[in-house]
Design goal:
Mean pLDDT: 92
Order of helices and strands: HHHHHHH
Helix content: 55-70%
Radius of gyration: 17 Å
Bound molecules: zinc ion
Number of strands: 0
Strand content: under 5%
Low-confidence stretches: none
Shape: globular
Length: 189
Amino acid sequence: MQDFIDQANKNGVVLLDIGRCQFCGADYQNGVFACMDNYNNGLQLLDFNNFEHHVSRFLSVDAHALQHPEVHGRWSNHFHLTRLNLILDKKQTWDYKTSPLLSDYLNHYKQNRPNEFLEVPKPLDRGKLTAKDLTKATSSYECIEQIKKWAEEVYHSWSSNHSIVSQIADGFLDNKYNRKTQGRKTTNR
Ligand SMILES: [Zn+2]
């Protein structure tokens, strides 16, 4: 909890604790505080022992983060939007081992680009669906479909940055592929 408050302070954003969430518009009584507290409530129908449900988890984390960029560090936007590009546009399969590889790639990438900022869409203009809408789902299938729709809406709302993140995603895939190839060569020797 403290983390997101610190980040908001750093970004000079005042957090409101009444009414709808000021960033995504989710219909709560205690604003963004309720939005952060209840974010997981909509994921209860997912089964995280089932590998096929993992991608929904990643998509939901990305969608929620990109609806609340004011309470994250700015490079988080690069991470989450690039991952959406890889999963939604480039149809990459994703698992828990792939995320740290993307983080490593971005850590290296950002060193040469201290002034690269993504253009952040206005609050309440980052997709109509929110994490709260997931709580209306009555089956895991419905929940998965809803998360996909939510992630697509959020991804679309960041469209002015798609060309940047698509290039990052291509660089990441090249790097991953080359590393794997090198690894294989070494192993075969
Ligand atoms: Zn929110």
